[in-house]
Amino acid sequence: MLLLHLQELNVGDLNGPIKDIQEEVDLLLQEVELKWCQRAKQQWLKWGDRNSKFFHKCASHRRKVNMINRIIDERGVLATTYRAVSKAFQSYYQNLFTSSSLSCCEEMVQVVDKVITSEMNRQLMKRCSLEEVRRAVFDMNPYGSPGPMGSQQVSIRITGLILKQFLPSIVSPSQSAFVPRRLIIDSIIVAYDAMHSMKNRMRGKREGYMTLKLDISKAYDRIEWVFLEAVLLKMGFSEEWTALVLQCVSTVNYSIMLNGRPLQKFHPMRGLSCNTRSEAKEGILAAAGLVEAKSYEKYLGLPAYVGKQKLNAFKPVLDSIRARMQSWSVRFLSQAGKEVLLKSVVQAIPTYCMSIFKLPKAILNAINSLMHKFWWGMKWDRSKVKWIPWKILGISKEEGGLGYRDFEKFNVALLAKQGWRLLKHSDSLAAKVLKAKYFHRTGFMKAKVGSNTFYLWRSFIAGREVLREGMFWCIGNGDSVKIWHDRHNGDRGSRSILLFCPKEQNLVQTLEAGSHYADRMLLWRACHESLATKFNLFKKRIVDSSQCPVCNQEPESVMHALWSCNSVQDVWGMSLRKLQKRTVMDSTFKELWMHLISVLEDDELDEFAATIYQIWKRMNILVFENKFWDPGKIVEAARNAVSKFRTVNETSNAIQVGINQSVSSWSRPPLNVFKANCDAAVDKGRSKIGAGVVIRDWEGRVVASLSSPKYFFSDAHLAETYGVVKAVLLCKQLGIKQVIF
């Protein structure tokens, strides 16, 4: 109000105060926008996104979902008031973090071996550098608020980064999780194979085997601090390091946040932030207080056991996708938004299971069907018209589709990746178990499927063919290579090359180049004749007439609705000059678009796409709201949209241009001289560096290449040095002496 009042009174003498107040208002608006960005908790949002209603809806929805109005306490009593609910939460967590006064730690840690050396202790107690502090701080979520214990979070993060480098030599080989270069999938493979072996050995025998699945509830919250101290000292950690760890876990206070209001603080005292006879089985379970795992129950997202009924075993994957889709509200999502949601969420759900098992085709087809219905839209239990079949949506964008994942091929590719890991990390626990059982006399690539083998092993074999097609030997001394049977880098045989129609490829590349995503989606649908025009609706027997609702003279095809209608020609007459004199000669919109690609510049194509979007928007407003925009309003809206889109992407485009200009072209070395190019990358979040090396001969042909990741200090200079060392060692291994680095 004050700013408006000063602007009304200003005759030139109030410019200074008005400018100061405007800057203060802008600062307050930035703070409000940042607050809503943080409240929305959308980690994928980029800097520069506007403070739109999307942020507010995300924040409001999150607050509504997290609201707790009633709860059943530990005694089974229903609490409905805020006071009773807060008392139930306070009592539960105070009891959870209350120590049980453990007194026999010495006996329990007798089996723990000393694994920490004096050199490890020296490295652990070394003073942390400024770079380590900076890396720990900048690895934290930029949108998150550290709170009053923010400095302690930084200390804990630094401590974890220092300890991480020693974990492989500290943790047992049978522990697969939380250790670099070890995957929890190794434990899953071993567990499934062990259960399969147990089942086979029980046949025809009176004595059987039993597995125990230990699932400790709130394990981290129940660890006694005296036990933690005893274990650390027994493993060989110094007293100073042990005291530092205990300080991190014991100097905290907890306050439960209930419906946006903090409860009373309390100080924790522990914690870290089938052939068996039915009678015998029931007796064992009752005596031990255990519960039998059923065949179709799932644990860690995977079925407990995979037998002959594979559809029932993997049905929970399909149910999980269906439940996730039903929980989404898509009223505010366009088809472009649905595409992003399907690719980033739904396609990721079965990935974990597909990396272990080859899913049945019926399950994969059902997933495709759910995605197809969701993309086109569903109302209650009825799906809307599917204008384009899934086989077109599922092909790559280079071929004219939308690039949805082919689950069957993706499944085989993930299984091939597991096979590659068996070859690359033969010292892993899973590789040792599988080799001892299935291919102890040969290698994985020559192993046979065998009879009565587990479905997991047969799944790995299914991915082996893909691995065989893309794998070849790098010739060294030649001792391990069978020159006439094994593929090698000296084999210059033909390779299949997938070629696309130049016109189709040019069409897709132009769609990707500049225009907004919604404009591109509309153009793509228009080229496929899949817009809900009167003509297309009439063919589907949804409407009684195919006539254009504006001119009422011709059937409303895609070409008519977006180009040839007289009302649309009025719009193009006020738009680009190159379009004003163009006559209507093309029979389909795709032919029109292909012609415009060859005659219009990139910025003109952007304006054309934006105008098409506004024309289609006007048609929908006419049908549903009975309003009709004049041509000038459409042209102005299209140009404003293009201007805003270019402004937002101006910074990122400038950065990309700078990157492209900095890339130099490869030059050939002299005759009979090789050239080795190496590069390195740094992953600070995982304390990992990686190097890549490519060796070419004097004709530019690739002789050898390698990639080598390594968990080490994430320093750029160290990574570059590591890459050079790898390049030198590879040249030495191949016997190359005349080489340029």
Describe this structure in words.
With 741 residues, the chain is an alpha+beta fold. The strands form 5 sheets. The protein has a 4-stranded mixed β-sheet, covered by helices on one side. Strands 1-2 form a two-stranded antiparallel sheet. The protein has a two-stranded antiparallel sheet with strand order 3-4. Strand 7 (378-379) and strand 8 (382-383) form a beta hairpin. It is globular.
Shape: globular
Q: What portion of the residues fall into strands of 2 or more residues? A: 5-15%
Number of domains: 5
Strand order of the largest sheet: 11-10-9-12
Radius of gyration: 33 Å
Structural class assignment: alpha+beta
Summed over residues and divided by their number, the pLDDT gives a mean of 77
The N- and C-terminal alpha carbons lie at a distance of: 68 Å
The major pleated sheet works out as:
4 strands, mixed
